[in-house]
Amino acid sequence: MTVTLMCGPSGSGKTTWAADLEGAGAVRLSFDVELWRRGSRPLTATPELMQEVDAELRTRLVYLVRAGRDVVLDLTFSTRAMRQEWRALVLPLGVVPETVHLDVPHDELRRRLTARSDTAADDVALTPEQIERHLAEFEPPTAEEGPLRVVRVDPLA
Fold first, then answer.
1. CA distance 4 to 18
2. Helices (H), the chain
3. pLDDT at residue 119 above 80?
4. Sign (positive/negative) of CA torsion 13, 15, 16, 22?
5. How far lies 5's CA from each of 72, 104, 107, 134, in Å?
6. Is residue 114 over pLDDT 70?
7. DSSP H helix total and E strand total for the chain
8. pLDDT of 137-157, one tens digit each?
9. Average pLDDT of span 108-136
10. Which residues lie across from 4 on neighbouring strands?
11. Contact, 134 vs 126, CB < 8 A?
12. How far apart are CA 22 and CA 42, in angstroms?
């Protein structure tokens, strides 16, 4: 059984990667999908709704791991503290999550995010100011945090 933490700024391709794992049998958990299903978006959701979704996703993660299911967490995991909190949920269950960090050049991220249509949970548009703040606040994961796979995305390849 595996738990994968998808890590990278918005637009890095986390959902595409997570969908591939989902196609191979993992259960995908996503804030964006849950918020969209409830008629909200990550940047406009109330703190109460964010807390509710967070609690539900954490509960589902533990339930799925106890049931022996592979899980991919399709979240940004933008801070070390956030990654540590989610790892701590499954470590007592004998699972050491792997972090998959999609490392994409910032110019490519800006291009992708600017092209979003805001018509689906995984296509939420950001303003230029939100994009810059998101990129500035993102803390790349390090090997000291636990198993880490860094995928460098070359947009010209």
1. 9
2. 14-23, 31-37, 47-66, 80-90, 106-114, 128-137
3. no
4. positive
5. 6, 17, 24, 18
6. yes
7. 6, 5
8. 999 999 999 999 999 987 664
9. 78
10. 72, 98
11. yes
12. 22
Location of structure tokens 């259960």: 27
**Assigned token pair, 35:** 């918020």
Burial 80-119 (b: 16+ CB within 10 A, else e): eeebeebbebbeeeebebebbbbebeeebbbebbeeeeee
Q: What does each C-alpha distance from 85 to 42, 80, 91, 116, 135 come to in angstroms?
A: 19, 9, 10, 30, 21
Could you tell me the fold of the domain covering 3-152? Rossmann fold (3.40.50)
pLDDT band for 41, please (50, 70, 90 cuts): confident
pTM for this one? 0.90
